[in-house]
Amino acid sequence: MKIKYESCCGSEIQKLARLTYILEKSTFKLKGFTSSQAYTLLELLENGELSMREISQRMALDCSTMTRNISKLVDLGLVERCSCDSDRRITRISLSELGRVKTQEIKEAFMEHFGQVVCKLPKEKFDIIFEGINLLTEVLEKERSCNEKK
């Protein structure tokens, strides 16, 4: 019985992840960005200035892929690169003013889009669903952290 429960749950989580990704991707595309670009901008908005290595780790992309993504965002005038004063080998990335404006637009479009979805949930089930999502997110973050340490 336990195996059926876990496989059904895993299947539903996989479906949820895929549907969420598709919805996010369409929202980002409407704003003129790839998912990777949008997630990079959102990371910078949330965390401020980050090193290339930090962004690569947060995005789970190798440094060469991240460098290409950042170069495109620099060309668009959305992010800025600067060398770290204490170690010139480290490149720090931050949002430009235009980048902050565009990223806020992405975030607002994303929240509006998902807000429309959440409004369709039964009101009496909302707290249960929200608690479940928070618990699942917490477990997934711990799992990711454990995997990064391996």
TrEMBL record:
Could you say which residues form the signal peptide?
Answer: none
Lineage at the top is:
Bacteria, Fusobacteriati, Fusobacteriota, Fusobacteriia, Fusobacteriales
Q: What name has this protein been given in UniProt?
A: HTH marR-type domain-containing protein
Among SMART domains, the record links this protein to: HTH_MARR (SM00347)
Annotated Pfam families: MarR_2
UniProt KW RNA-binding keyword: no
Which InterPro entries does this entry report, sorted A to Z?
Answer: HTH_MarR-typ, Tscrpt_reg_MarR-type_CS, WH-like_DNA-bd_sf, WH_DNA-bd_sf
HTH marR-type domain: from which residue to which, for each copy?
1-145
Is Transcription set as a keyword in this record? yes
**Which GO molecular function annotations are given, in alphabetical order?**
DNA binding; DNA-binding transcription factor activity
Q: Which UniProt keywords apply?
A: DNA-binding, Transcription, Transcription regulation
